[in-house]
Every structure is written in C-alpha cells, then in structure tokens.
User: Fold this.
Amino acid sequence: MKIATIVFIIALSGCATPPETIQGPNGNQATLLTCQKIQDCYIEARKECKGNYVILNQSGSGAVNHINTGYVQYYTVDEHKLLIECK
Assistant:
C-alpha cells in the first residue's frame, strides 16, 4: 500500500526533476525544467522566475510509449524540457 501511494504522489507532481541552473547559450544564467506536461513546465517557470521569463529552448513530445517485453507491459511518457532565463 505504501509503494502505491508513493507512486501515485510522484505521478501527480508536475516536474519530474528539480530545476537545474546552467549557463545559457548567451552566457547568462538559465534554468532547465523537466516535466511530464509542458503546461507544468510553464507553471514552474513562472514560479522560478517570479513571473517574467524568456524561453530559450524547449524539447519533448509528451508521447505515451507502450512497451511490451513479453512478460511485462508498461507505459512511459516522454518528458518535456524547457530552458528559460528569468527577466
């Protein structure tokens, strides 16, 4: 029961990993967000920047992939990545 609860809580969280501060392509500090849904990345970007930000790059499809190994079937979701710079 505890494991199911933990999995459920993780599934509800918007961003898959904590925001990562990196050097952006223009040399300024940038933040890399990784989320299951792109909308969650936009929400997290507003929180990180306290409102205003510029999207430097984004990637990911959010596609659901069905994997069948013959023994186990499971689904994965491609992550979205959003690189932002706070203004």
Notes: The mean pLDDT is 80. The chain has one domain: 2-86. Residues 38-49 form the longest helix (12 residues). The longest strand covers residues 15-23.
